């Protein structure tokens, strides 16, 4: 598949203050990409540059090979064939749902507009709400109307800025899956901006971690989770902590948590000092025996699907463990620590 969107060495600035720096990535036809990053890292600025609302300070943006943004020219948003969904939905309050959806449909007869509005309402599963006004809709329904409006003009690329941030957790999960299905059904590409890792993992085919205006890593959710290139990326896509380690053999590392054995050899030399990034789900409290590293249960938080423990080592350091099964340990109990790392994440010491 060919590249639909290609961003090359892109920098964006407000009044000479650089916000986004040297960002490069490309997405293919039909691919959903996510830009994930903390608040203020430049996600919206980058998205607005893609949409043509902001000029670029360096680099370029191409759609299907055509340059739409460079330092010398910016193709206006309405000529880019892009649909945009904003964080606050930005529906027109004085227009009905049907008129909101039809708003961007120029050069179409009334009958054509009606047909498109109906098919969009079917697509976003709101077939009976065409006459309602935005204030008569729930947040999730408003978001669906915003999506229908963005898709009505058949864009080649859909841009979404924090589309689910105003919804509660349950709705956010449900709608992100549904929006993914709708985008896939339309066969178009999309760039979704979010600070929510779970949402990014659910909706995207590929994602980039943006921090301090720079793209830290680009890849699938699995590759970012299991093969992060930096501690910053590792922490951004899930919990975890760094532990000093010394490599004893190809697949054996001595750490503060004890001797860890891995299924696959690490490409390390004996006695090499490393840092191991270990996620709470890889650590479990067990009944203490001499063979284990000792710890004391500091706290226990039952969350339904799993229980999170804070365990204090003899050194005073506290580590998190996340276990799915119900264990009998209470606060104050002395336990052993078991570590089962399936895919070790190793950084230089
Ligand atoms: N119009 C503007 N003029 C000057 N500075 C701006 C402007 N818009 C945003 N900024 C600054 O650019 C930086 C990045 O903002 P941006 O909105 O792109 O971040 P973000 O990652 O989308 O954050 P959030 O998740 O909070 O929306 C911030 O420091 C912000 O204050």
Keywords summarizing the entry:
349 residues, 20 strands, OB fold (Dihydrolipoamide Acetyltransferase, E2P), alpha+beta, binds adenosine-5'-triphosphate, six-stranded mixed β-sheet, Rossmann fold
Describe the structure.
InterPro entries: AAA+_ATPase, ABC_SmlMolc_Importer, ABC_transporter-like_ATP-bd, ABC_transporter-like_CS, ABC_transpr_FbpC, Mo/tungstate-bd_C_term_dom, P-loop_NTPase, Transp-assoc_OB_typ2. GO terms for molecular function: ABC-type ferric iron transporter activity; ATP binding; ATP hydrolysis activity. This is Iron(III) transport system ATP-binding protein. Keywords: ATP-binding, Cell membrane, Ion transport, Iron, Iron transport, Membrane, Nucleotide-binding, Transport. The chain is of the alpha+beta class. It has 2 domains: 3-236, 3-Layer(aba) Sandwich (Rossmann fold), CATH 3.40.50; 241-348, OB fold (Dihydrolipoamide Acetyltransferase, E2P) (Beta Barrel). The chain is 23% helix and 36% strand. It has helices spanning 43-51, 97-102, 110-123, 139-152, 169-186, 197-203, 221-226, 231-236, and strands spanning 3-14, 17-28, 32-36, 58-63, 66-69, 82-85, 157-161, 189-194, 206-211, 214-219, 241-249, 252-255, 258-261, 273-278, 283-286, 293-302, 307-313, 318-323, 334-339, 345-348. The longest helix has 18 residues, at 169-186. It starts with a strand and ends with a strand. The mean pLDDT is 91. The protein binds adenosine-5'-triphosphate (ATP). Adenosine-5'-triphosphate (ATP) is lined by residues 14, 19, 37, 39-45, 195.
């Amino acid at each position: 598949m060919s590249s639909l969107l290609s961003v090359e060495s892109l920098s964006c600035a407000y009044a000479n203050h650089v916000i986004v720096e040297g960002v490069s990535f490309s997405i293919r036809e039909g691919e959903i990409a996510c830009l994930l990053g903390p608040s203020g890292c430049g996600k919206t600025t980058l998205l607005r540059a893609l949409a043509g609302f902001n000029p670029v300070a360096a680099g370029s943006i191409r759609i299907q090979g055509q340059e739409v943004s460079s330092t010398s020219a910016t193709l206006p948003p309405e000529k880019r064939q892009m649909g945009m969904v904003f964080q606050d939905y930005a529906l027109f309050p004085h227009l009905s749902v049907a008129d909101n959806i039809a708003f961007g449909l120029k050069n179409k007869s009334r009958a054509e507009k009606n047909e498109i509005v109906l098919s969009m309402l079917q697509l976003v599963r709101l077939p009976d709400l065409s006459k309602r006004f935005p204030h008569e809709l729930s947040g999730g329904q408003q978001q669906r109307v915003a999506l229908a409006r963005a898709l009505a003009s058949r864009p080649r690329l859909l841009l979404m800025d924090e589309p689910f941030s105003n919804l509660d957790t349950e709705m956010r999960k449900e709608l992100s899956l549904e929006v993914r299905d709708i985008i896939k059904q339309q066969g178009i590409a999309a760039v979704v901006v979010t600070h929510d890792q779970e949402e990014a993992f659910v909706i995207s085919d590929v994602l980039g971690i943006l921090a301090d205006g720079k793209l830290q890593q680009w890849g699938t959710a699995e590759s970012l989770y299991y093969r992060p290139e930096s501690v910053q990326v590792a922490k951004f896509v899930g919990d975890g902590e760094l532990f000093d380690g010394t490599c004893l053999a190809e697949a054996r590392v001595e750490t503060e948590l004890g001797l860890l054995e891995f299924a696959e050899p690490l490409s390390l030399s004996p006695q090499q000092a490393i840092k191991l990034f270990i996620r709470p789900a890889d650590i479990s409290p067990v009944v203490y025996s001499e063979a284990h590293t000792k710890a004391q249960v500091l706290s226990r938080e039952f969350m339904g699907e799993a229980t999170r423990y804070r365990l204090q080592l003899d050194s005073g350091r506290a580590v998190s463990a996340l276990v799915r099964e119900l264990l009998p340990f209470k606060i104050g109990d002395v336990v052993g620590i078991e570590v089962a790392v399936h895919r070790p994440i190793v950084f230089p010491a």
